[in-house]
């Protein structure tokens, strides 16, 4: 008999109600990170929730700290969520994307933690967007950005770009890391996790190949989007991202930046200004109107909501591919 399971859980609920954001050493042993025999996995936002669900399958319970339709950069952690982190069997997050999550994890000290940033390389795609810059496409695939793992990528200065999931190759690397973290946290189901990881990586490899073939024979390399979420995707497929805002989707572009985008659009024969589903499209639509360009959605897939063009990561990425093909004039 597991004596710890007989301890009342009301103590934890009470702690959350009182606004306590830390748990004592003894209360962190209330359970073994499982519910009904299944590993409890807490993820920080949708792209990591998708990986956990696909790899863990029916062997785990998955929850996300960021609810559908919420912009993940804006997330603030509640006392209840901090308690959930303490109780979880595995926490999967991306260090530097959501500062409140970073702080809560340091406070909660979960049993097992998987940092997606540690499974691939992060690069600096630049937050400085005052002038006419090239944000990807021209440079090679270097690993020089690894030192950015510790940085807060949305702090407003030049820092590591966290949007690794928008490159299917890097996302596959993260999938392998999450799979290994699940094996370590729950060895009894290691065979299941290995099998599901292999299947998902194969699917992501196919997605990468479809992007490569689908973006060949294009008439333009340049696309304009709301915020600089697509640096890794642009770099992977030789495109040039021009963002209205920097890495922070809430930042306002300067007049100099808007002027620079006017020049870029004319010089590179840009026909589309992309906006997103979770942040305001006002600036994008104003810019498009000034330049007599059309608008379309290029989704950074930070969450799936009612406006998403697809039910999961794979579907929305394929929608993004179609949108890029149309905007870049593929034959």
Q: Strands, helices and their partners?
A:
Blueprint: H1 10-17, E1 34-35, E2 38-43, H2 46-56, E3 60-64, H3 79-87, E4 90-93, H4 99-108, E5 113-115, H5 168-185, H6 190-214, E6 222-225, H7 231-236, E7 240-243, H8 255-267, E8 272-275, H9 282-291, E9 294-297, H10 313-328
Parallel strand pairs: 2-3, 2-4, 4-5, 6-7, 8-9
Antiparallel strand pairs: 1-2
Helix pairs in contact: 1-3, 2-5, 2-6, 3-4, 5-6, 6-10
Structure in words:
The chain has 331 residues and is α/β, with parallel strands linked by helices. The protein contains ten helices and nine strands. The longest helix has 25 residues, at 190-214.
Strand percentage, roughly? 5-15%
Helix/strand class: alpha/beta
Q: Outline, from the CA principal axes?
A: globular
Mean pLDDT: 84
User: Count the strands?
Assistant: 9
| Percent helix range | 25-40%
In angstroms, what is the radius of gyration?
A: 21 Å
The parts where pLDDT drops under 50 for at least 5 residues are 1-30, 127-158
State the helix count. 10
SSE order, one letter for each helix or strand: HEEHEHEHEHHEHEHEHEH
Main β-sheet description? 5 strands, mixed
Q: What's the N-to-C terminus distance?
A: 66 Å
Question: How would you concisely characterize the structure shown here?
Answer:
α2 links the parallel β2 (38-43) and β3 (60-64). Helices cover 38% and strands 11% of the residues. It contains 10 helices and 9 strands.
List keywords for this structure.
9 strands; 10 helices; disordered N terminus; 5-stranded mixed beta sheet; alpha/beta; two-stranded parallel ribbon; 331 residues; globular
